[in-house]
From TrEMBL:
Protein name: Helix-turn-helix transcriptional regulator
Coiled coil feature spans: none
Organism: Spirosoma aureum
Pfam families linked: HTH_26 (PF13443)
Domain HTH cro/C1-type residue range list: 13-62
Source domain of life: Bacteria
GO molecular function annotation: DNA binding
Length: 83
């Protein structure tokens, strides 16, 4: 996956445990653990907002993007149909 989750880095910088964050944002430890390990497939903006408030950071401090080498390239050719 091309999205990298740096939640563990921000937790270390803030000297906060995952369970402490879970209490502050009112999420289960299991759901935050899934996010922290990068296994989450989605995140709600309200959840991201709560995490950013609790960690005093921006979404870009938690989420990062890197090009995925295995992604299929988007076709740049188009076929024109005269009809």
């Amino acid at each position: 996956m091309a999205i990298i989750v740096n939640l563990d880095v921000m937790l270390a910088r803030r000297k906060m445990s995952l369970s402490e964050l879970a209490q502050k944002v009112d999420l289960t430890l299991a759901n935050l653990s899934i996010l922290k390990t990068g296994k989450a497939r989605a995140i709600r903006f309200s959840t991201l907002d709560a995490i950013c408030q609790a960690l005093d950071c921006k979404p870009g401090d938690i989420l990062d993007y890197t090009a995925d080498d295995h992604a299929s390239p988007v076709s740049t050719t188009t076929e024109l149909n005269p009809y």
